[in-house]
Design goal:
Blueprint: H1 24-35, H2 42-56, H3 58-68, E1 71-77, H4 79-88, E2 92-102, H5 108-114, E3 115-125, H6 128-133
Parallel strand pairs: 1-2, 2-3
Helix pairs in contact: 4-5
């Protein structure tokens, strides 16, 4: 029975925790809106405020994404991807708005040989060894 079990790739988290500092009066205003039922909690208010700002600047963001040639969303680079680039003699320039992941099956040596630069707006996940090997290319 154990031979039929396949290991699934772990699902990356869909969000990242951030910390912000707010003045007491601003925090009080948020708490009042939560208390009055406009929002379910502080996090709901903050997420809504962020989404409203992103919607407000949507056109500028679209133009910037196009200008900078950014991949949007989740972009995962595994050993096979980097070996394919290596065989073609290509150097990867990773530019992501969202989450960029260098898989755990990628060695620091392979990453250093195939990745020329990394620019991520959002979050970047890789093993500590790969991050160290690419530290001069992460911008």
């Amino acid at each position: 029975m154990g031979a039929n079990i396949q290991e699934l790739r772990p699902k990356p988290p869909e969000s990242e925790k951030i910390t912000i500092n707010l003045g007491y009066v601003d925090l009080g205003h948020i708490d009042l809106l939560v208390q009055e039922g406009f929002f379910s909690n502080r996090t709901d208010f903050i997420r809504t405020a962020i989404r409203n700002q992103l919607d407000r600047h949507n056109e500028a963001v679209k133009q910037s994404v196009t200008r900078h040639k950014l991949d949007i969303g989740l972009r995962r680079y595994g050993r096979e991807d980097l070996e394919a680039a290596q065989k073609k003699g290509e150097t990867l320039h990773i530019q992501v708005l969202g989450l960029a992941i260098i898989a755990n099956d990628v060695s620091p040596e392979l990453a250093a040989e195939t990745i020329g630069s990394i620019h991520v707006l959002g979050a970047f996940q890789a093993s500590p060894a790969v991050k160290a090997a690419l530290s001069d290319r992460i911008g």
